[in-house]
Amino acid sequence: MKQLLYILFLLFLLAACREDKKEQFARLVQEWQGKEIVFPQDMAFTRFVTEQVEYRIPDAEYKVLIYVDSTGCTSCKLQLPKWKELIAHVDSATNSNIPFIFVFQSKDDKELRYILKRDNFDRPVCIDRDSRLDKLNKFPQDITFQTFLLDQDNKVKVIGNPVHNLAVRDLYLKQMIGMRDKEVLLTTTLEPEKAEYNLGMVKEGTIKKQTVTVRNTGTSVFKLKGFTTSCDCTEATCDWKELQPGESGTITVSYEAEQPGDFYRTVDIYGNLPNNSLMVSFIGTVE
Prior knowledge:
- This protein is of the alpha+beta class.
- The chain folds into two domains: 33-177, Glutaredoxin, CATH 3.40.30.10; 184-286, Immunoglobulins (Immunoglobulin-like), CATH 2.60.40.10.
- Helices cover 28% and strands 33% of the residues.
- It has six helices and 16 strands.
- The chain has helices at 2-32, 74-78, 80-94, 109-118, 132-137, 166-177, and strands at 45-47, 51-53, 62-68, 100-104, 125-127, 147-151, 156-159, 190-192, 196-202, 207-216, 222-229, 234-237, 242-243, 248-256, 261-271, 277-286.
- The strands form three sheets. A seven-stranded mixed β-sheet has the order 2-1-5-4-3-6-7. It has a five-stranded mixed β-sheet with strand order 9-16-15-11-13.
- The two termini are 17 Å apart.
- The relative contact order is 0.14.
- Mean pLDDT is 88; it is low at 1-16.
């Protein structure tokens, strides 16, 4: 009964979030567009938390600020492998002309160091010990809106996290490297076999896989752009890139059970859809 109430509560929150997200995004874009980010003058950077490094924020045409607060699951928020992939793409297109500035709050230095080491993330990172950067700028509380593309004057050009949302990623790339879609795609509709999957009881330390079937119910070809997940403990893969009208395809979602308790994870499927993406959710309990 307790688990059922927990699940119903999550579904209620999800419905509310879906209704408010567009309005929240529009409000934050209006509020932050053109706003100057103020940096403390004596910011200290490290590698792997403990190794001090000499690093100054470059005076570049564009820069990306990634701020991560200490609330919630650190690993879920960071998703460092996806950042490494995006940075490599931007570096290749711009000859490494765009700096990525990572600033983290840390509630557990050992955990943060472990994550950085595990993902071999050796870029300079600033630990915002007293939340100075946050206090100077009063960042939004939602992690989705704690990442910014800044211009040479440190003014916000784009707000949003490009590794959590592929539509935002496109905005970053268009601004930074002038990337444009090579073709104009007609939108179509995509329907999952189920909107939510119950993975049941999952043993801690194991990986549970779930096959998700989606069908193109529209009249135009569906072209897959990619996936984003709510946590790096969840991964989505498939062996297809497009679906013709009426055609179905399968997606394999893998969930790694990291700690005991109830869980709720999501996978967003991006492509030429009216709202850019389709979300499928997964619930269960780690024992």
